[in-house]
Amino acid sequence: MTNETAWRIYGSELSPYSLKVRAYFHYKQIPHQWIIRSQDRMEEFQRYAKLPLVPLVLSPTEEVMQDSTPIIEKLERRFIEPALEPTEPVSAFVSLLLEEYGDEWVNKPMFHYRWSREADQQSAAGRLAVDMLPSDADEQALSGVAEVIKQRMVPRLSFVGSNEGTAPIIEESFATLTSLLQAHLASRPYLFGGRPCMADFGIAPQLYQCLTDPTAGGLLRDNSPAVTAWCERMLTPQVQGKFETWDALAATLEPLLAKELAAVFLPWSTANAVALARGDEKFEVELNGRPFVQQTQKYHARSLAALKQKYADAAAQAGDESMLTPLLKRSGCLGWLAD
After folding, report:
1. How far apart are the first and last CA of the chain?
2. CB burial class (10 A; 0-12, 13-18, 19+) of residue 187?
3. CB-CB contact of 219 with 178 (8 Å)
4. What Rg do the C-alpha atoms of the chain give, in angstroms?
């Protein structure tokens, strides 16, 4: 264990990206302070923040880091053990691909379920109000702040593409994902075997947030007990064994690549990038035979470009004998990743 004790994570219990980074710190056993970005700490947070977003990580030398994936990638060069990625080239890239899917797509059902129904709106707004206000705030203050939060967050459903027309697509995707994960996680503690990797850190925090909400949480507990246990396990993940070989994982992970990444996530991400390149403010893409309409998102386009570069690097490093390119072609992902 490192003797550096001054790491700070400014975050929120209702932020999947905050929990993703905190889980990584737990896994690497990096001593840290977990600081809720409340009104009491807002001036302190704003002094360091380049963006008004959590998580924000502050190093012992007051180096500021924001954005969950770059934070982990940077810290991974410093905190080598326990290993975060499988050594097998196929598994290593698929882990990165699934992490991207978690960050950029699984956030949609999380946000959709949290803010599209009254019971979920009230639950989330109330918990956020508790986090934001001083511990001695009275019920009237909490209720007032909760209502302000609700009025601010519900209109943001459009930012993740959630509306009356797209709701069935988003909810079907959630059902497909959790069903496939239930089959996969029924026989292993983490996505790639006995220890977590980037894929776990990308997907589990999003689904953990779903678990804390009335509607999505009920669906998970009723239908996906192994997924529920995995989400809770990923709050403080630990090494429980070795990474499995891709041959051992393929039967239950490859369907996820085909049914979710190739059919939904990568077509959506590509359509967003194409629309941005044209200068469009919104785009429409057909997902599983139905139209999905959303405002364009600049960050997603940058993220897709980075993912494509990671695939190019992985393919070049793996060489002609690797199973990576055939796997991506077979699952339907290759055309979206290879220029």
Report:
1. 43
2. exposed
3. yes
4. 20
3-state secondary structure the chain: CCCCCCEEEEECCCCHHHHHHHHHHHHHCCCEEEEECCHHHHHHHHHHCCCCCCCEEECCCCCEEECHHHHHHHHHCCCCCCCCCCCCHHHHHHHHHHHHHHHHHHHHHHHHHHHCCHHHHHHHHHHHHHHHCCCCCCHHHHHHHHHHHHHHHHHHHHHHCCCCCCHHHHHHHHHHHHHHHHHHHCCCCECCECCCCHHHHHHHHHHHHHHHCHHHHHHHHHHCHHHHHHHHHCCCCCCCCCECCHHHHHHHHHHHHHHHHHHHHHHHHHHHHHHHHHCCCEEEEEECCEEEEEECCHHHHHHHHHHHHHHHHHHHHHCCCCCHHHHHHHHCCHHHHCC
In whole numbers, what is the pLDDT of the chain averaged over residues?
Answer: 95
β-pair partners for 32: 7
Domain segments of the chain as ranges: 7-76, 89-114+162-337, 117-159
pLDDT in tens, 18-71: 999 999 999 999 999 999 999 999 999 999 999 999 999 999 999 999 999 999
CA dihedral (315, 316, 317, 322) positive or negative: positive
For the four alpha carbons of 21, 24, 30 and 34, in that order, the dihedral sign comes to: positive
Tens digits of residue pLDDT in 293-310: 999 999 899 999 999 999
pLDDT, residue 317, reads 86
Q: What is the topology classification, in CATH, of domain 7-76? A: Glutaredoxin (3.40.30)
pLDDT of residue 3: 43
Assess contact for 161 and 272: CB atoms under 8 A.
no
The residue type at 188: R
CB 201 within 8 A of CB 20: yes
**pLDDT above 80 for 314:** yes
Tens digits of residue pLDDT in 247-296: 999 999 999 999 999 999 999 999 999 999 999 999 999 999 999 999 99
